[in-house]
Amino acid sequence: GAVVSQHPSRVICKSGTSVKIECRSLDFQATTMFWYRQFPKQSLMLMATSNEGSKATYEQGVEKDKFLINHASLTLSTLTVTSAHPEDSSFYICSAAVFADTQYFGPGTRLTVL
Amino acid sequence: KNEVEQSPQNLTAQEGEFITINCSYSVGISALHWLQQHPGGGIVSLFMLSSGKKKHGRLIATINIQEKHSSLHITASHPRDSAVYICAVSQSGGGADGLTFGKGTHLIIQP
Lengths: 114, 111
What we know:
The structure holds two protein chains of two kinds. By secondary structure, chain A is an all-beta fold. Chain A is built from no helices and eleven strands. Helices cover 0% and strands 53% of the residues of chain A. Chain A is globular and about 35 Å long. Chain B is mostly beta strands.
């Protein structure tokens, strides 16, 4: 089946630093990748939609200068949380899709900002 | 009001019981998804459906487009089915659009 990996699975950083999260589709080429986050006891929320070679589309309320998304190839998208603050602590999940097919989710990255 | 509502929020049942989780939505959709999230956070896509009914093993998902309602059923439930089940909708092409999620149903199956 389609496999999506994320790295790292868990990261702890100091306030003010930047953190990069990678999302890879291991055995297929994804036309679109999505980034979601989930705060404790809350539902997943879409942050942005990313298509290879083009700028990401951000959801309302998500700062594009804070959450930098790079989608350099059909198998890799990265999310960089710049100048992270404690309120950015969350569970970040990516998913990958091929056209109108189902989305395949990564295992998630738990970010803790001290 | 959330666009996607699930019920119940929490469900505890005995092994072997028939489980039903409900999902109602208030927007036009192109597809509805049922997802399973385990304690570590990883998410598995169970079903994507836009009409009728789908079955996979002990899991059955149905959708009624007119009533904007979907159900996920688990037959002969087992402790390993314990997880959070999430209903999500896409408003244009299942893979081309980000999903809108319900808050999830926390299911515990006791031996």
